[in-house]
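Sample 1 of the test manifest.
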Amino acid sequence: MRVPTIEFTDERLANGLRLIIAEDHLAPVAAVNLWYAVGSKHEVAGKTGFAHLFEHVMFQGSAHVSKAEHMSLIQAAGGTMNGTTWLERTNYYETMPAHQLELALWLEADRMGTLLEALSQENLDNQREVVKNEKRWSYDNRPYGSWVERLLAGIFPPEHPYHHPTIGSMEDLDAASLEDVRAFFRMHYAPNNVVLSVVGDVDPEQVRGWVEHYFGGIPANPDLPVVLGDLTLAPTLGGERRETVTDQVPLPRIYWGFRAPVFGDERLDALDLAGHILAGGKGSRLHRRLVREERLAQDVSFFSLGLIAGASIAAGWATARPGVDLERLESVYWEELQRIATELPSADELDRAKALTQADELGALQRVEERADRLSMFATLFDDPGLVNRMLPRYLAVTAEQIRDVCAAVFRLDNRFVLTYLPAEQGAGDAETAA
Amino acid sequence: MSGSSGMSGDRPIVVADRPSPGRPRPYVFPPFRRTRLDNGLSVLSVHLPGRLLVEASLIIVGGASDEAPERAGATVLMARALTEGTEHYSAIELVEATERLGASLHAEAGWDAVSVSADVPVEHLAATLDLMAEVIARPTFPAGEVERLRDERLNDLLQARADPRRRAEEAFIETIYASESPYRRPAGGIRETVELLDASPARAELARRFDPARMTLVVGGDLTGLDVDALAEARFGGWRADPAALPPATADASAATSERRIRIIHRPGAVQTEIRVGHPGLPRRIPDFHAVAVMSAILGGLFNSRLNRKLREEKGYTYGASAGFDLRRAAGPFAARAAVNTEVTVPALLDMMTELEAIRSASVDESELRAARDYLVGVFPLRFETPGAVVGALTGLVAQDLPDDELARYRPSIEAVTADDALAAAQAHVRPDEAAIVLVGDADAFLAALESAGLGPVTVDREAAISMEALDVAAD
């Protein structure tokens, strides 16, 4: 199979803004993607959820753009856009018809340079309510909705910045002030804290000219980068942790969490392939045994979340079928984790996992939006955008021994966090949900 | 272009003037080739240079809306069971063979069609088509596996009861459609019908659709050096219609009533209320399709649609409010949707009703009209960046019996929509006076205010109340 190499250029403006350009003329489309090196891990106690609330404020206007006009202009130009906040970073992106690229660059520069000129208490209060409704919708009013928060709290100690989720707490959101917004903007939203990737049907010389024109006058912040101190963690939890939650869920579910090697460590590549072998589809080990053969589970999952500071997360779950013995479900799931930690996967299993990884990679990189996001990601996290081309060869080079060894290091009794959701007391007429 | 740039002390210098667009690149929806095998099976192929992960989809027109009401869910169950075993492969052998090709193979049924699709690196297209032919023509429907899939669906229905979003969707369609309509139930069926299913109705649902004249193979990607027609002929050319095959039926999409009414699904302690407002909407094949698209973008499709602007950006009641038509072979639902914090349930609902009235009582502004048309026209090429998206659009044409030039005509037809067209579409198809209002939330928190708002008669389902109060956490 041929996976095309992504050719790109990588340069900096005088103010520190890092610009990555990759041409691709297959479709008349251009992607703009900015990664700001600020995420929820930069939040301090009492200010959780702030990076994400701030991301919302970024759509409330700037010196030359009115409230929510960013979206109107992008959509009227035939483009799509969004922003997301994660533990490590905040990203903003637009995918445009190629002839509308300049508009997206102008909009991003205007808010990077002049956001505070349009900031108002009214807009902050409005977006605070929107974000609180986002929290209710995504977490609080959703079955099993608290699992991410509980998993982070179970894997990372309270003093570690991955301990709390990006959405934050209602109390902290209520406490966020205009002064907090101003201080956050002045510290983090500067050109020397950004990677800007432009991918698609573009003329690189023209892009350079536009980027210099629109972003070149925004001054660097000399206080950057923010250094977070020593975030290293012991490689394991140092003892099993368990939590049981009674919630309004019809079926019990068991979540698993483990500390795992950091993102960028080649051992995590092997763990990603282990995830394919364990739960990558209907032929995977956990699905085959728990869903198909023993019929203990309604669905299964296993994956890793790569993080750069201290530890990544390896996690999974199994939803119990009604009436199933939960101890049995837990012990069979654990047996499969132990089996991959002690026995080598077969050559065929490994080949299939690699073939799927390769097709996934080919599929994902078809889209200019995804290519731009990965270039920004690898440049921000590793100062190495070329990883966009080197991850697949790394996956294809993983051996059966490396998979067994990383699984043995991660799937340990003293490194497991087991989170069990149990159905709350059932009302009459719903007796079939009893576990 | 005016404005200035350059470093100057600490003050950011930005460019005040908005750039104007460059010259639009020419765009046409990728031209495709249509042929027909002697047995009636159609083949659509579309060459997309440089797209090495190709998409292949074999669709059979006629989906879950065809089935008898007492067997609701049988078509979806049949489609899921296609990959559970065939004459030459067990389920596990099939998935392993697929994975060795780097392919992912899915079989599914919606309201309007059954399809088997795969994306695969182009060099393995032929081998993947072999597997697609195997699952469609030679499935064995092993009893134990079909029963497992049925039980998984029953468990999924249990899960849906606890999820406010899914509960709202289910209660909404059950409220708006008449009891004769298949659209009153989810395509996957409800407990009462799914419980009765096994391999036999699944087999029957395939047999009644197994007619090559109802089937179309769509292939998209870099097809350099490939003869798709010959590949199709070799695998599908020998198929003959099953004696049990019937033409697709037309679903009954009648409304339960044309009276406005309110139904609350009570969830004590819920922090949000899921709101649905609407009625049976429209089929896909309508003369004013493009006017409906523009009107619903303005009402509830764009980020700055009237509903989202009011409920999110002005009031902060919700993370997002939207409205739209689910266009099927028969009239799928029209719904306005939002999840709002419990305390503002009634004011949010009143705002939604106001917007549903406003869109049909006065012409849209010229600026709104332009924004919606420009978005729909401009975003069109972005929607078709990958083979999966192009093939999906073509299978949509086939499933809805639309003409081959439908996609090529889309942009000029949207450009031609006027404010009068949008108003006429709203007046004909948005009918708040006939709407059902479904609320999933804490009735005790808003029932009194709702009743005094006088929107219509209210019923409350206090079903199997489960306490949502403080979570009981035990750590050890």
